[in-house]
Design a protein that fits this description.
heterodimer; A: 320 residues; alpha/beta; TIM Barrel; eight-stranded parallel sheet; 51% helix; globular; B: 488 residues; Aldehyde Dehydrogenase, Chain A, domain 1; Aldehyde Dehydrogenase, Chain A, domain 2; 2 domains; seven-stranded mixed sheet; six-stranded mixed sheet; 20 strands; 38% helix
Chain lengths: 320, 488
């Protein structure tokens, strides 16, 4: 009975906060987005050439921003342990490499990951709120979050209720995020919009604004379970939302493209997009992350190539 | 407690390393002759002038200076080719030659792009992605029309004119040559073309392609020189048609010169385009459009969006977004693939621009330039905008032809239409709004030949281009672009 009581207390406590925040959101309706213009802008980014020292610096920065992820039905404790080991020893043959930012797992593996990563400075992130579909009740979602945070997850990756969003129940979506943010306590909240299910840039912008105003510490493109996942144009739309909010409030919100970013060139283009849109303050893993599993190895291969001048076989890099 | 000003810090410490396009693959002569009658001939004056790389101030090559005698030679060669070969050739055969030129441009696209950037100072990104592909596209497009003129103008029996004298400007050297030559050839005319004296090289490379394509001798003649050479073309008695792109001043001289003659004329002259942003516009992409509108090709664009009108309610936001975007523009070596804004085309043009910057400041306008670093050698101008300007300022009224934007605000649709039309020019305009009805209302009331809706500086061979008022007359591109080269 205790958890139920806590929830209801929490909800009532949130109620006043929500009213205030909903008003803020309504006062700043989302601007629309022009698809042609967004794509033109991205063409400028992808036609840039990133090489030499800039490339090496960028690759290391990207590596430091990776949330090493495993979100499979087949995940086991051993698999998670292996991944955590990889996170700490990316490629020991090359000294001086940064670590990844976090390891991202399901709530039931948080404890294992936490144990493995103790003292490493690498965060444990956990997906929650009936990931990936989000099709469940608030109670279940809150419990999901509680299990993850109780086990020690420093970061929570939640999904928004896309169905409600499409129904135009924006207040429902807003309130849900605000409630979960409250339940996260000290853990940082990443809000997954699942842009592949939203259908237009206008809706991505609207969902971004709702998530930001409701208290997201990060907004994130995708679960990785739906195609298309992260794209450069979608990320630009979300970065613009973050930027407008920053100018309005002075509060920084982070960005995490996730899914589909498997090679270094693309990762560097993301970084360039951040550089030219949000500047220095976002070029750190405090405010920008890549949700990916195979990206880390490609970054490693490229970093080693920059040093040795030749590509090595993929078999020289551990697959976990 | 003072309120902390919120600012984005673009000084990231992660700057792009130089990525220069290689120049090892290009072939340039030390000296270029005149291309007359299918052959390279020395100028009768024996004079040559240097063509300069505006980014390094170094000489690239020497170019022949054509005088009246040479012009006469070129016109005679063109006339001979017209009467003996080109006008008798079946149209479908003509088309084959034009297709061949298009394909050869594509084959040598990289070489053309590099030379265009070296000679004119434009960033390789633009010469590679805009100038050269569009030039090829124009030849492809007009090749298709060559044997379909009777369908383009049904029951009107279109006939070619004869010899066309064509004079092109220095801002898009190859592209403008394509705009002129392709429709002239497709309609069965022969050509004497003079590129601008500061940027002759790609037109001369085009002459090499024309030779390679095996065009009959004299169908296209390319002669180089400055204003006097142009005047000799305009005043030549055996020319049937003059096509000129350049300044309004010279356009007026040409119109005077051809008055009372049988010559047909098209003039594509200056502009001072209004780019209009409403509060319901998609602001982030509108800002991208403004940037592209004024800083494309260093602002050396006749249709550049050099006057910006912002609805008062969003002025602060637009200005902020504009300044932020300007910070990520890279100014420098035109051959670097990351360069957004290259070198000013010539010393002379840089002086003109700097003079306008002075005028703007003395008129009381506030000047803002981005915090970029420009190279020491060469001709450069940082992206610039002026605020606190009004219709009576010279920087609002006159064409600067540089990366300089003058910003005004407006309150109502009627007001902005009046201000936008209050200029002797009328080449282009841009309207940014999320409301289709507003867009159509404005596009029917703005006096400009080209109006872009929620975009700017987009070109396509199928779309006609040309001006109102002192921006000239006649259209180039599209079906309309055939007409000035035909009689009915």
């Amino acid at each position: 009975m205790l958890p139920t009581l806590l929830f209801s207390l929490n909800l009532e406590f949130n109620f006043f906060r929500m009213i205030k925040k909903t008003t803020v959101y309504l006062n700043n309706p989302s601007p629309s987005v022009d698809q042609v213009g967004i794509i033109d802008r991205i063409d400028r980014i992808t036609s840039r050439s990133i090489k030499d020292e800039t490339k090496l610096q960028g690759l290391k920065l990207a590596l430091n921003m990776v949330d090493l992820t495993t979100l499979e039905g087949a995940d086991t404790e051993n698999k998670v342990r292996q991944l955590c080991n990889k996170a700490q020893h990316l490629h020991d043959a090359y000294p001086g490499l940064p670590t990844v930012a976090a390891v991202c797992v399901y709530p039931n593996f948080v404890k294992t990951a936490k144990q493995c990563l103790q003292g490493s400075g690498i965060n444990v992130a956990s997906v929650a709120t009936a990931f990936p579909s989000g099709q469940s009740s608030l109670e279940v979602k809150l419990l999901d979050v509680k299990i993850a945070t109780d086990a020690g997850a420093e970061e929570i990756d939640m999904v928004i209720s896309r169905g409600k969003f499409h129904e135009g129940e924006y207040n429902f979506v807003f309130d849900e995020i605000a409630t979960i943010k409250e339940a996260c306590g000290k853990s940082r909240l990443k809000v997954i919009l699942e842009t592949g299910e939203l259908g237009s840039f206008d809706k991505v912008r609207k969902a971004s604004d709702i998530a930001i105003e409701a208290g997201a510490d990060f907004i994130k493109t995708s679960t990785g379970k739906i195609s298309p996942a992260a794209t450069l144009p979608v990320t630009l739309v979300m970065l613009e939302a973050i930027k407008d909010h920053y100018y309005r409030t002075g509060i920084q919100v982070g960005m995490k493209p996730a899914g589909g970013i498997s090679n270094s060139k693309l990762a560097l283009q993301y970084l360039l997009l951040v550089k030219e849109t949000l500047g220095k303050d976002w070029l750190t893993n405090q405010w920008f992350r890549f949700g990916a599993s195979s990206l880390a190895n490609d970054l490693l291969m490229q970093i080693v190539k920059q040093q040795t001048g030749v590509y090595q076989s993929k078999d020289y890099f551990s697959k976990d | 407690m003072t309120k902390k000003t919120i600012k984005i810090n673009f000084d990231t410490g992660w700057d792009l390393a130089p990525a220069p396009e290689s120049t090892s693959h290009i072939q340039l002569n030390e000296q270029y002759e005149l291309f007359i009658g299918g052959k390279w001939v020395k100028p009768s004056s024996g004079k040559y002038f240097p063509t300069i790389n505006p980014a390094t101030e170094e000489k690239i090559a020497m170019v022949a200076e054509a005088n009246e005698k040479d012009v006469d030679k070129a016109v005679k060669a063109a006339r001979k080719a017209y009467t003996e070969v080109w006008s008798k050739m079946p149209a479908s055969e003509r088309a084959k030659y034009i297709y061949r030129i298009a394909r050869l441009i594509q084959e040598k696209a990289r070489e053309f792009a590099v030379i265009e950037s070296m000679d004119g100072g434009k960033p390789i990104r633009e010469s590679r992605d805009v100038d050269v592909p569009l030039a090829a596209a124009h030849f492809f497009y007009y090749a298709g029309w060559a044997d379909k003129l009777d369908y383009a103008f049904p029951n009107r029996k279109p006939q070619s004119l004869g010899v066309a004298g064509q004079i092109t400007p220095w801002n898009f050297p190859l592209l403008m040559a394509a705009w002129k030559i392709a429709p002239a050839l497709a309609t069965g005319n022969t050509v004497v073309l003079k590129p601008a004296e500061t940027t002759s090289l790609t037109a001369l490379k085009l002459a090499e392609i024309i030779q390679e394509a095996g065009l009959p001798d004299g169908v296209v003649n390319i002669i180089t020189g400055a204003g006097e050479t142009g005047a000799a073309i305009v005043n030549h008695n055996d020319i049937d048609k003059i096509a000129f792109t350049g300044s309004t001043g010279v356009g007026k001289i040409i119109q005077n010169a051809v008055a009372g003659t049988n010559k047909k004329v098209t003039l594509e002259l200056g502009g001072k385009a209004a780019n209009i942003i409403f509060e319901d516009a998609v602001l982030d992409q509108a800002v991208e459009g403004i940037i592209n509108g004024i800083y494309f090709n260093q602002g050396h664009v006749c249709c550049a969006g050099s006057r910006l009108f912002v609805e008062e309610s969003v002025y602060d936001i637009v200005l902020r977004k504009l300044k932020d975007r300007m910070e990520s523009l890279i100014v420098g070596n035109p051959l670097d693939k990351n360069t957004d804004i290259g070198a000013i085309n010539s010393k002379e043009q840089l002086t003109t621009i700097n003079n306008y910057l002075k005028i703007g400041k003395s008129e009381g306008a506030e000047m803002y330039q981005s915090n970029c670093v420009v190279p020491k050698k060469g001709y450069w101008c940082k992206p610039t905008l002026f605020t606190n300007v009004s219709q009576s300022n010279r920087i609002v009224q006159e064409e600067i032809f540089g990366p300089v934007l003058a910003i005004q605000t407006f309150r109502t649709v009627a007001e902005v239409i009046e201000k936008a039309n209050n200029t002797p020019f009328g080449l282009s305009a841009g309207v940014w709004t999320d409301k289709g009805s507003k867009l159509f209302n404005l596009s029917s009331q703005l006096k400009a030949g080209i109006i872009w809706g929620n975009t700017f500086n987009k070109f396509d061979p199928t779309s006609p281009f040309g001006g109102y008022k002192e921006s000239g007359f006649g259209r180039e591109g599209g079906l309309h672009g055939l007409k000035p080269y035909l009689k009915f």
